[in-house]
TrEMBL record:
It comes from Lactococcus termiticola. This is Molybdopterin molybdenumtransferase. GO terms for molecular function: metal ion binding; molybdopterin molybdotransferase activity. PANTHER family: GEPHYRIN, MOLYBDOPTERIN BIOSYNTHESIS PROTEIN. SUPFAM superfamilies: MoeA C-terminal domain-like, MoeA N-terminal region -like, Molybdenum cofactor biosynthesis proteins. Gene3D superfamilies: MoaB/Mog-like domain, MoeA, C-terminal, domain IV, Molybdopterin biosynthesis moea protein, domain 2, Molybdopterin biosynthesis moea protein, domain 3. The keyword Magnesium applies. It is an enzyme of class 2 (transferase). Catalyzes the insertion of molybdate into adenylated molybdopterin with the concomitant release of AMP.
């Protein structure tokens, strides 16, 4: 549908995304069920770790006054296993057998590794040498009481869950995962008929759902709509009420059956044209208080649009900033096509060198699985081999 549009810069578009009012929800979750959620509170140590003086080795514990003139023979008075709490004091000339992870009695100054000791026939222990280190981890050596060990905004991976459990935490505050509806529009999209007769499979739907999930969202369903204004409007009205974010793909340009910009203009629209490629017709609006990011149907443009405009929203629902890391890299090949707009190509970044992924066309889909960055070719320019360019590195790739 033809509508007059004014192209805005990528920075202006990102400012609209950053300013959109969102309502993140904080919920209580059992730690063991919180994998993949983002923590909504700072976690401080309620006790030090280690909580007790801990033996780092299997061996023999000795007093400091005995720590000289080796080899030396000791009387072994107790066998202390991990989990034991041996409270008696040692006398000079006595030692305890102690295991890795066991609580070291207060008066023991050093644990001598088993490998430099020998049991003698009279039942005593001969220690041949004493190492410089004590082989004891002191109280709070890893984390002091009250120290921040998990900051708010951290994505809970297996390591984060394990440290929470190590502090005996059972429930935590997390950001609820945002619910994201992915809507593919286009009468060319076939459910099962395949690619015949002008039809294609809806490959952008699973692409966007997967990307949403990779960034911590729940994809609430795959919706496919024909290019039909009333049906699209009604579906977006429903989905924007039921979800935190709606991402659409296709029908956003100026074709006779492109209705997204029309629906945007009936709502609180923010932009409908960008001075960049790919994805110049990308449109953003608020419907029923939910943001709607309307991306191009061209698969590569759709991929780029997700990272530039949907990912920051999905992260913000989870109390996070975008996970894309800006940087610089040298281009490995010349890029000679000039464009009136800045062009963000998807690329493969390795060891500070970036190469074009695929052919750099908006319609490409077969190489998207390899992309781990975007790099910028400024408008009206080309890139020579070895030229430094701005890169945005994608997380988890
Ligand atoms: N006269 C003009 N034509 C176009 C312009 C323009 O400014 N003036 N812009 C071009 C640019 S740039 C882009 S990008 C596309 C954007 O088009 P739409 O977002 O409206 O997307 P569609 O026309 O619906 O589809 C484009 C392309 O992508 C395929 N597609 C669509 N949906 C899917 C899907 N779910 N899975 C896989 N592939 C999909 C579709 O079949 C088309 O081939 O407009 C240009 N035209
Ligand atoms: O802006 Mo479109 O995504 O280049 O083809």
């Amino acid at each position: 549908m033809y509508l007059k549009r004014t192209a805005i810069s990528l920075d202006e578009a990102k400012a609209f995304i950053a300013e959109a009012e969102l309502k993140p929800r904080v919920i209580t979750k059992r730690v063991r069920e919180a994998h993949g959620f983002v923590i909504a509170e700072d976690m401080r140590a309620t006790f030090p770790i280690p909580y007790f003086r801990r033996s780092g080795y299997d061996g023999y514990g000795i007093l400091s006054e005995d720590d000289h003139d080796f080899p030396k023979s000791f009387e072994m008075v107790e066998n202390v296993a991990a989990g034991d709490d041996f409270k008696k004091s040692l006398k000079p000339g006595q030692c305890i057998r102690i295991m890795t992870g066991a609580k070291v009695p207060d008066d023991v100054a050093k644990v001598i590794m088993l490998e430099v000791t020998k049991k003698t026939e009279d039942g005593r222990v001969l220690i041949s040498e004493s190492p410089a280190k004590s082989n004891i981890s002191e109280i709070g050596e890893e984390i002091d009481k009250d120290e921040l060990y998990l900051p708010k905004g951290t994505s809970l991976n297996a390591g984060a869950i394990s440290v929470l459990v190590a502090f005996g935490v059972e429930e935590i505050q997390v950001y609820d995962k945002p619910k994201v509806a992915v809507v593919a529009t286009g009468s060319e999209l076939a459910d099962s008929a395949g690619q015949n007769d002008g039809k294609i499979y809806n490959s952008n739907g699973p692409l966007l759902q997967g990307l949403a999930m990779e960034n911590g969202a729940i994809a609430t369903g795959e919706y496919v709509l024909p290019d039909q204004l009333d049906e699209t409007r009604a579906m977006l009205d429903k989905l924007s009420r039921e979800n935190d974010l709606v991402i659409t793909t296709g029908g956003v340009s100026v074709g006779d059956f492109d209705y997204m910009a029309v629906i945007a203009q009936e709502n609180d629209w923010k932009f409908n044209k960008l001075a960049m490629r790919p994805g110049s017709p990308t449109t953003f609006f608020i419907m029923n208080e939910s943001p709607v990011v309307a991306l191009s149907g061209n698969p590569s443009a759709c991929f780029t649009g997700f990272w530039f405009f949907a990912e920051p929203l999905i992260r913000r629902f989870q109390g996070q900033k975008t996970a894309i890391k800006p940087g610089k890299a040298k281009v490995q090949m010349a890029y000679t096509k000039k464009n009136e707009f800045d062009r963000w190509l998807n690329g493969v970044l390795k060891d500070g060198q970036v190469s074009l992924n695929g052919q750099g066309q908006s319609s490409e889909l077969s190489s998207l699985y390899q992309a781990n960055c975007f790099f910028k070719i400024a408008h009206d320019s080309v890139a020579e081999v070895g030229q430094e360019v701005i890169v945005w590195q994608l997380p988890g790739r």
